[in-house]
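## retry 2 of 3
previous attempt timed out at serialization; input unchanged, resubmitting
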Amino acid sequence: MKKIILALAGLAVAAGAYAQADVVKAGERALKEGQEAAKVVEIITPAFTDPATSQMAQTWFIPGKASFAEYDKLLGLRSFNRLPEGGESKMGHLLIDGYDYFMKAFPLDSVPNEKGKVKPKYSKEMLGIIAGHFSDYVNAGADLYNAHDYNGAYRAWGIFTSMPENPELASRINAQPDSVFGEIYFNQGIAAWQGENLENALNAFMNAKSKGYSKKSLYDYAISIASQIGRNDTVLALAEEALPLYGNESDLYIRQIINYYLQARNFDRAFEIINKALEAEPNNAQYYVIQGVLFENNEQKDQAIEAYKKATELDANSADGLFNYGRMLCDKAFAAADAAPTDANAYTTYAEENILPFFTQAADVLERAYESANANPESTITGDILNYLENVYYNLRDENKLNDVKKRKTYL
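## retry succeeded, writing output
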């Protein structure tokens, strides 16, 4: 009885293998009949996981070829403006799916036979099909991006940029200049960023840079993302590279450099950088703001006040300069208050001479800072300015202006 059971079990395994082989043949018939790729995949799916067929190149070649074939049909419809709704996205995913299926088929098509010889059956055709759609992956990425399918766009553009790295494919595609790949890598980085995959985004931006892409937007995106994911050394390298290129357009880069050395408590290097920048641009108000921050962090309060004041003299509308200058004037008033005499009569005279003048001056400076910051929709310091003004008018016993500040705060 035991032998009979084993024999029956063996027959069952063989029957299963034959069944999956029939599935592959059915998928091939569907391909030849021109059925949609989704139908071909539905038919052949059981063969993907069966040990007898999952290691056959044909199992993956069939749905891959069906995907490319349907893409070509839709491309024809598109040329006559007959593409159905959502057709652009479908075309993009057909290209991605076709590539993925072929990538699974390639290694299986190179397995040595029982005589130890490798006789690929499908590889040449697959290489030709993929190479023939080389430029289509650029358009597919754009279509998927416009459809807000950012992960799909990232994949499509990634396939395009990977082809020259494959020697078999590289020999079959038209060579493109690095500038083309730099542009596509940049777009790929934007797609990954939109899809909130920051690691992939940063890698794509760095790849774009390696191809000579050096627009300001690349540095801005890459620095922001590197900062978010804690790649401080990368932030520094990018900022140092961008500074001579775009430093006259934005103080972002020198701020990032200074911040790096501030975090490292390397004040000597930080001062060296900002002082060199000021030598080159002595009328740059923002550089004085940065210098003030450095002085302040280095416990050089008087020098910080002078730097902030210089910034406001160079740019009367510098919200950062005005706010920091006003804030430091408040600190001077608070420090004077801490040293005030306890006798009531003596305090009144002391306050009028040593405390209130700083608050009065701070009120004027901070109101100017508020006007400047409030006029800039991107400013993030308006609330901080009002907090200081509230404190100033409280100490000046100016109830009307204090209430006005409280009213302004309700609109934040």
